[in-house]
Amino acid sequence: MTEKTRLQLLAWAREYHCAAFIQGDPVQFPHRYTQKQDIEISGLLTAIMSFGNRKQILKKADELHQLMGASPYRYVLSCQWKEDFRPTDKSSFYRMLSHADFYTYFARLHAAYSQFDSLENALLGYSGTPMEKLCAFLEVSAKSPQKKLNMFLRWMIRKESEVDFGIWDSFDRRDLLIPLDTHVCRVAYLLGLTDTETFSLKNARNITAALAEVFPDDPCLGDFALFGSGVNGAL
User: Fold this and answer.
1) Nearest to residue 54, comparing CAs of 1, 95, 110?
2) Which of 103, 166, 204, 213 could lock onto 85 through a cystine, CB 3.0 to 4.6 A?
């Protein structure tokens, strides 16, 4: 990595890693809450929906939060979701995510919060990296980049941030993986952080390792530099 690239990443990180990032970003939804469990539930479900057109993401995430009301945690424990989302309803709630999919998400969360006081503690029962633990909880593959789940983990784990919450103390931000999307992939490639724009777990790891050269204690701080510059047309 050249010194010019390193300095550019540092500058972009300072520019985009700020409270203004929240406006217009899906992270605004968990920022509605102060209770840990509400933030966890809102954050996970919002992250899962964070793909496709940003305006539509925000619209449907708002619709979901209207259903959950003042406390997603109380909503989960109340089992009201069993009325709002039926396990046999395959109709779309958001793009390819069906009502039945959300029934399954809420069922998993209900089981977790019935046994543990937080999703953080529930994940401690699984092995591996933070991403592997969350994938095991949701029963999804840990062999793909899992952009949405890594974004959620960034929200929960990164401390000293106006954007991320840092409410999970059991995990180290150095173990986070970059949430890989088209913007991040393209900018990382143009900067020479990776030699391919391939959307893969291997590439996510390679980009994270490159960012760790600039931000050794907090590689996902570089996510703001790559994503922000990509979205805003700096590259």
Assistant:
1) 95
2) 103
Percent of the chain with pLDDT over 70: 97
Taking the alpha carbons of 198, 199, 202, 203 in that order, is the dihedral positive or negative? positive
- Report pLDDT digits (tens) over 26-82: 999 999 999 999 999 999 999 999 999 999 999 999 999 999 999 999 999 999 999
Q: What is the pTM of this model?
A: 0.94
- The residue assigned the tokens 């590439």 is 203
pLDDT digits (tens, 9 = 90+) for 187-218: 999 999 999 988 999 999 999 999 999 999 99
The phi and psi torsions of 83 (rounded to 5 degrees) equal: -85, -35
**C-alpha distance across the termini of the chain, in Å:** 17
CA neighbor of 190 nearest in space, from 226, 228, 214:
226
Q: What are the backbone angles phi and psi of residue 37, rounded to the nearest 5°?
A: -65, -40
Task: Compute the Cα dihedral for 198, 201, 202, 205 and give only its sign.
Answer: positive
Whether 218 contacts 173, CB under 8 Å: yes
Furthest CA-CA distance within the chain: 57
Distance CA 189, CA 8 (A): 14
